[in-house]
Amino acid sequence: SDQELNAKIETNLGIVNTILGNTDESVIHYELAMMIYKQIGDLRRVAEVYLNIGLNFLDTLDIKSSLAALDKGIEISIEKRYLGVLTLLYHAKSQALIANKDIQSAKEFADKALSLSHNLDDKQTIAEIYKIRGIIAKEMHDIKTSEIYLTISLRINTSLRNSLNIAEVSIELASLYKDQGKHEQSKYYYSQ
Fold first, then answer.
1. What DSSP string describes 1-53?
2. In this predicted model, what pLDDT tens digit does every residue of 18-49 receive, in sequence order?
3. How far is CA 15 from CA 28, 38, 59, 125, in A?
4. Which of 54, 39, 50, 52 lies closest to 76 in space, CA to CA?
5. Neighbouring C-beta atoms of residue 47, cutoff 10 Å
6. What is d(CA 122, CA 129) in angstroms, rounded to the nearest whole number?
7. What is the mean pLDDT of the chain?
């Protein structure tokens, strides 16, 4: 329908403005998209737009607004059982909670996301959540656990041939080893 097409255009304009760093403009487009999705009864898309808004605010470190948007998306996704979207929302919320230095809650949401990802056999999200769990373990000064989670994430991403995620996890491992004074291992992972 025309309304659905308009909503998708507004969503894409929101994404483009997010990429360009135009936070206020992107939120305007997301809210227009959400209004249309609500009118046509597409609550799955509403939950996805809340995810986009939450990630947008996370990028600008407006953690309070990020968490508020993510919680709205989580509420819809739980009520309607949109498990794929719920997994992404839990994952995003764990990242927002890390940024908010609420490490214990971040761990809980990462675990929820991991459980759902395993149930859905979503290997890409599983790898990403293991990376987040590695970061959480590092924040909790549990270096061995951090190393294990990051290594698992790296292995999964390598098997999926996901170059960008391989690089991100390698940087996390390099940083972990650098903090421990293990310079040779750090250099190895920085070179990946």
1. -HHHHHHHHHHHHHHHHHHTT-HHHHHHHHHHHHHHHHHHT-HHHHHHHHHHH
2. 888 898 999 999 999 999 999 999 999 999 99
3. 11, 19, 12, 20
4. 50
5. 27
6. 11
7. 93
* Confidence at residue 89, expressed as pLDDT on a 0 to 100 scale: 97
43-48, Cβ contacts within 8 angstroms, sequence gap of 24 or more: 43/76, 43/80, 43/82, 44/80, 44/82, 44/85, 45/7, 45/11, 46/73, 46/76, 47/73, 47/76, 47/77, 47/80, 47/82, 47/85, 47/86, 47/89, 48/11, 48/73, 48/85
Contact (CB, 8 A) for 116 and 109: no
Which residues, at least 6 apart from 164, have a Cβ–Cβ distance to it below 8 Å? none
**Structure tokens belonging to residue 17:** 């403005």
> What CA–CA distance (Å, rounded) separates 74 from 58?
16
Specify burial of residue 45 (Cβ count, 10 A radius: 0-12, 13-18, 19+): buried
User: Which residue is listed with tokens 């135009």?
Assistant: 22
pLDDT at 178: 93
Residues of the chain with pLDDT under 50: none
User: Which residue type does 63 have?
Assistant: I
Please tell me the distance from the alpha carbon of residue 157 to that of residue 131, in angstroms, as a whole number: 10
How far is residue 114's CA from residue 130's CA, in Å, rounded to a whole number?
A: 8
Residue-level pLDDT at 191: 86
Model pTM score: 0.81
**pLDDT score at 102:** 95
